[in-house]
Automatic annotation (TrEMBL):
Pathway: Amino-acid biosynthesis; L-methionine biosynthesis via salvage pathway; L-methionine from S-methyl-5-thio-alpha-D-ribose 1-phosphate: step 1/6. The record marks 166 as: Transition state stabilizer. Keywords: Amino-acid biosynthesis, Cytoplasm, Isomerase, Methionine biosynthesis, Nucleus. This is Methylthioribose-1-phosphate isomerase. It comes from the Eukaryota. GO terms for cellular component: cytoplasm; nucleus. The gene is LOC118268621. GO terms for molecular function: S-methyl-5-thioribose-1-phosphate isomerase activity. The lineage of its organism: Eukaryota, Metazoa, Ecdysozoa, Arthropoda, Hexapoda. It is found in: Cytoplasm; Nucleus.
């Protein structure tokens, strides 16, 4: 059974505390929007799709308890709360797109005089609940398309070796995962030889979370430190790199976990195809290029300490951007639930 990062039933939400993994498995109760904001901001839940789903579900839980019977007040409160949730972490676009969609829904339900306050609440909560199912379906499609593309581009019909960065699996989504979904799909096709996952300093999503998921799924895998990437590509044949995304601009420039950009440069140098696996909810067609993507900077303590232990020399200045932007020119293809697109062909998605 795959790992369950989000446990939801109507009126109740618990999330697996990813700060404690892999050593402890503990679920945290999310009672409403304030809790939702905190678990996202503290990174107890992380990964672009999971951030969006947990944020919206925290609103669904709060709304379920709310006895408000004035649709206009409900609409106004929903808008304020969604904008607040979006502010918890700025780089991933998924929560912003979900918030825009939900605000539009609230506007139309509020304006429609045939809709009662009870119906408003029911339809609004159901729309949020639908995100859980849709995300898993989308990830499975991403997995299939990514698997097909990688196998088609690899030489012969031998086994493939994949390098991935950060965590994009069940823990980062509603289930199955994006880049890790492609890896799962390759494993299911029996063509996967080996996966290399980076530690992903400083927060160690690779060492703590991806390694945990790979071991859990019994996928043959090896953990490497981030600085081994070029040496790995130079010494072992890597079939492809597959990573996730927090925001893809209209021209294909992609913001993802810090370190992705240098992996893409190494991949280009070694002739290794570099894929981004991302649902359409990670694509921000309103941004023409990656230059305008806001990059979150995290507290320096995430760099200076490992757990409670300080490792950096006291007094040193730190810079801790959480993401970087990989230019479209370094990306072979963007794997979505609608198929695999060259970065300069994202506008074609709309016609699919
Ligand atoms: C399917 S998750 C895609 C991305 O969100 C992932 O690669 C990533 O960068 C996560 O960053 P994080 O800071 O852990 O939220």
């Amino acid at each position: 059974m795959s790992l369950e990062s989000i446990r939801y039933s109507r009126g109740s939400l618990d999330i697996l505390d990813q700060l404690l993994l892999p050593l402890q498995t503990r679920y945290v109760k999310v009672e409403g929007v304030e809790d939702g904001w905190k678990v996202i901001n503290k990174m107890q839940v992380r990964g672009a799709p999971a951030i969006a789903i947990v944020g919206c579900l925290s609103l669904a839980v709060e709304l379920e308890k709310d006895n408000n019977s004035d649709k206009k007040v409900m609409r106004q409160e929903i808008e304020g709360k969604l904008n607040y949730l979006v502010s918890a972490r700025p780089t991933a676009v998924n929560i912003k797109l979900a918030a825009d969609e939900l605000i539009n829904l609230a506007n139309s339900l509020s304006a429609d005089e045939t809709v009662t306050p009870e119906e408003f609440k029911e339809r609004f909560i159901s729309r949020i609940e639908g995100m859980l199912i849709k995300d898993i379906e989308d990830n499975k499609a991403i997995g299939r398309y990514g698997c097909e593309a990688i196998l088609k581009n690899s030489e012969g019909d031998g086994p493939v070796r994949i390098l991935t960065h950060c965590n994009t699996g069940s823990l980062a989504t509603a289930g199955y995962g994006t880049a890790l979904g492609v890896i799962r799909s390759l494993q299911e096709s029996k063509r996967l030889d080996h996966v290399y996952c980076t530690e992903t300093r400083p927060y160690n999503q690779g060492a703590r979370l991806t390694a945990y998921e790979l071991v859990h799924e019994k996928i043959p895998s090896t953990l490497i430190v981030d600085s081994v990437v070029s040496a790995l590509m130079n010494s072992r044949r890597i079939t492809a790199v597959v990573v996730g995304a927090d925001r893809v601009a209209a021209n294909g420039d992609t913001a993802n976990k810090i370190g992705t950009y240098q992996i893409a440069i190494a991949a280009k140098h070694h002739g290794v195809p570099f894929y981004v696996a991302a649902p359409l909810t990670s694509i921000d067609m309103s941004l023409t290029s990656g230059e305008r993507i806001k990059i979150e900077e995290r507290p320096e303590r995430e760099m200076t300490h490992v757990g409670v232990h300080r490792i950096a020399a006291p007094g040193i200045n730190c810079w801790n951007p959480s993401f970087d932007v990989t230019p479209a020119a370094l990306i072979t293809g963007i794997i979505t639930e609608k198929g695999v697109f060259a970065p300069d062909k994202l506008s074609e998605i709309e016609s699919k």
